[in-house]
Alpha-1,4 glucan phosphorylase
Amino acid sequence: ESGERKAKVEKMFGFMDAFLKNDSFSLQKDILDHVEYTVARSRFIFDDFEAYQGLSYSVRDRLIERWHDTHRYFKKKDPKRLYFLSLEFLMGRSLSNSVINLGIRDQYADALNQLGFEFEVVAEQEGDAALGNGGLARLCACQMDSLATLDYPAWGYGLRYQYGLFRQIILDGFQLEEPDYWLNFGNPWEIERVHVSYPVKFYGTVEEEGIQGQTIKVWIPGETVEAVAYDNPIPGYGTRNAINLRLWAAKPSDQYDMESYNTGDYINAIMDRQKAETISNVLYPDDRSYQGKELRLKQHYFFVSASLQDIIRRFRDDHNNFDEFPEKVALQINDTHPSLAIAEVMRVLVDEEHLDWSRAWDITSRVFSFTTHTVHAEALEKIPVDLLGNLLPRHLQIIYEINYKFMEELKSMIGQDYDRLSRMSIVEEGAVKSIRMANLSIVCCQIVNGVSKVHLDLLKERVFKDFYELWPQKFQYKTNGVTQRRWVVVSNPNLSSLISKWLGTESWIRNVDLLAGLRQHVSDPDLQREWKMVKKVNKARLAEYIETLSGIKVSLDAMFDVQIKRIHEYKRQLLNILGIIHRYDCIKNMETSDRRKVVPRVCIIGGKAAPGYDIAKKIIKLCHVVAEKINNDADIGDLLKLVFIPDYNVSVAELVIPGSDLSQHLSTAGHEASGTGSMKFLMNGCLLLATADGAIVEIMEEVGADNMFLFGAKVNEVPALHEKGASLKAPLQFLRVVRMVRDGYFGFKDYFKSLCDTLEDGKDFYLLGYDFASYLEAQAAADRTFVDPEKWIHMSILSTAGSGKFSSDKTIEEYAKHTWGIEPCKCPF
Ligand code: AZC
């Protein structure tokens, strides 16, 4: 740091702790400057989108300033840093979140007003950054917000996909996928770092060389691609700290290969090089299972290699002894996707730094920790050996060596139990010999985390049983959480103000334990009235959105009943739809006088199906045909409506969640690792109708089972139910609604046949039939409660009051203490 330059700047400008000012005049001037000079539109004539751009660039300036100060401070203090490696981050929009975290939302709103614009309208111009699939990816985004807010010295690393998660288009009730070329209109939130770039190598051969009497392996790669950094500052709330999310994009390498140029085929040589960019082009949209695809493996290694070169370079700036690496660096691998990093660190230490194997292994196993997000064994990555050996020949050798040593150690501990040895081996023998990335991660990492208490139990008892018996101390869990900044303050400003008013402080935004203070006011009629008012306003906003989308007018007096998440058989959107058919059928068969007792419902479903997931796509279509029938049945009127919200994403969630009364989390027990949607609804005072699965079990402990509507088989009952198989008979009501679909009551009889087949006795793996009766009971209980508004509001307030445990701030504090060993490092000015 140049003290001289700093003194000069101070003298010229009169140094203040923030270089940029936040008074209304300065903000207006900054917005106009950016409109004129960055966006290159006239400062006199510009539209909402250009206002969004100018505004965002001016916010970005403020982020950059904090970012610089934070990183200068980190550099000075040199704390142990956390590097959070994830192939997916689902950030959504940045504008509102940034200005709220910077504490200048109102100032900006005022400045915009002076210029003739409205903040909300301008903020709506922003598209979502959807560089991820679902829960896992959104969790990372929430955790970045908490890491910044809690002043942890952390970096996020990811990939800058050109195409984010596909856009869902609904045509005649069928899902179509459209590419999400999200960078089309520029991205004011990133900073391209042309000078931060690293070569990433692929293919080639491994040769042996003798150096000082030792034989070492040398990888002679066959292809080089350049990784260029794009930085996305992440501001903390109520702190000057802003951390970095560094995303890599692939570019052709400068290290050109003479041969292709010498052939004289200049154009084709360039076209070939251009192919390098495809590596980071597209996010894989399937969140179910891993297919051994070369491009995907290339993405993983591209990401791992670039990130580690960057991390090691930063470490080397201040250290030259790798024994200090674990004291200065924590590497978190988010699911197994980045787990090649283990082999890469070993390769660098052994082949490039010439450390002996055991020292290198000791260091490597002390820096990594691993979190798994699934209970489904088929979602654990397996990389075919042929593929890996071709793309990364040296890494395959290293993984074999790690496995060899592990197997030897294991044999000495458990003897010749070959079944168990083969189950635990990193290498899976079989028709396609493969590397089990989860086993590699468990063998290497000192700590393996699950994402809820139930998830850990399942890991211990089922998924990683053998490993748990060997190393019980490795296995921990950190219950997932979501950030109250985005999910309440940004998306539900009315509720946020109401909470602050009743708690007498805004401190809950940083110290979420304070939310529990709402309990003492729960019976206050004033709070109840205001709480109800806020819900009504949010429902009106959602109703307006629904009307614009679908033309359907919904009544604000109806219960808004919502299920939004990726479409999966285990998440049982089908159970929801069958329940709706049942409700419809009951109303149709009711005496008119009884209809008066029916609680009107607006059922809302949203979510994307993986493009190749046939059954999930049929569920979407079923939802549409059922909606078509019900919504056009004049006889039913406002008693029941069904709406499918297309293209569900983060910003849609921000609109839908605050306007919901009831939210459904229906996974067959033992299938949802945690679930985080439930937490967002809970914070917003929506009541949950749920199975006792994943984090719901802990939510029950916090808010009390009597403040929720629970149903269905329990985690420990499911295996026995599966054993009963075909002898498990579904109830008549269930058979009746399935029959309606099967017989073509809603049309598309042939198309739905395979879907109905999954529900036959003995084939109903997800136990829809078994759980149906208790599901309907839970629904009936929700109806009974809804007609007692006082009781409903009471439960709603208690839901928010009990949601503190599910803030990502809590999760991150746990990780910091018990997994990463990092301390806050707060930028002082
Ligand atoms: C999800 C889990 O399904 C969900 O239960 C959990 O809450 C979430 O991770 C965060 O831990 N898993 C995924 O989203 N998985 C993929 C591959 O996208």
The pocket of AZC is lined by residues 133-136, 139, 287, 373-374, 451, 480, 672-676, 694 (CB under 6 Å).
